[in-house]
Amino acid sequence: MSDLKEKYWLNAEQVALLMIDIQEKLVPAMNKQLCEPLLQNTALLQQGFAAVGRPVLATEQYPQGLGHTVPELNGEIHDAAVAKVAFSCCGEPEFLTALEKSGAKQIVVTGMETHVCVLQTVYDLLDRGYGVHLVRDAVASRFISDYENALELAKAAGAVITTTETALFQLVKVAKGDEFKAISKLVRQRQP
């Protein structure tokens, strides 16, 4: 596989979705222009990863104070979400165990806040040799300037900055079969 394909293309057999800290008490504090797409697009990604049989990992920052993952995303991950106090998910041994168990070599990242927990996790994943695809329309911060700066920093560090539809269609690569039909149906539900 060429370096270009290895870095920029998702390999559906080696990828996992990571949802970082999309929690009940954090969502209302986020910029609405960023948070509404984050919720819609993370739900689509979660369903798309389930459709192709790939793992979904989730974390919750100090859930005792910030609550659990929002109900619309909490379904299948409720008991599997890793509680953490470190900003980077990789600062939590339980997360690293779940990540290793997933067998993933590439991680599609969504969550909040882009410039804190998301960015620090991106740095740590890259440092550990993972391919990181940061979904720009599925991350949020309180301020747009922090969000934009975090995307620039993540890209400069080596993360691929992508979008929900780009990631979903890279999971299937061809316009045929049951997995394509499932992804196509999800994308058609998406609101502009």
Roughly how much helix do the residues carry, as a percent range? 40-55%
Specify the number of helices: 9
Give the structural class: alpha/beta
Span from first to last CA? 35 Å
Structure description:
- With 192 residues, the chain is α/β, with parallel strands linked by helices.
- Helix content is 49%, strand content 18%.
- The protein has 9 helices and 6 strands.
- It has a 6-stranded parallel beta sheet.
- Helix 6 (114-127) links the parallel strand 4 (106-112) and strand 5.
- Helix 2 (32-51) runs parallel beside helix 8 (164-172), helix 2 (32-51) packs antiparallel against helix 9 (177-189) and helix 6 (114-127) runs parallel beside helix 7.
- The radius of gyration is 15 Å and the shape is globular.
- The protein starts with a helix and ends with a helix.
- The mean pLDDT is 93.
Topology readout:
Elements: H1 3-8, E1 15-20, H2 32-51, E2 56-61, H3 63-66, H4 71-74, E3 82-84, H5 93-102, E4 106-112, H6 114-127, E5 131-140, H7 144-157, E6 160-162, H8 164-172, H9 177-189
Parallel strand pairs: 1-2, 1-4, 2-3, 4-5, 5-6
Nutshell version of this structure?
The chain is an alpha/beta fold and 192 residues long. The chain has helices at residues 3-8, 32-51, 63-66, 71-74, 93-102, 114-127, 144-157, 164-172, 177-189; strands at residues 15-20, 56-61, 82-84, 106-112, 131-140, 160-162.
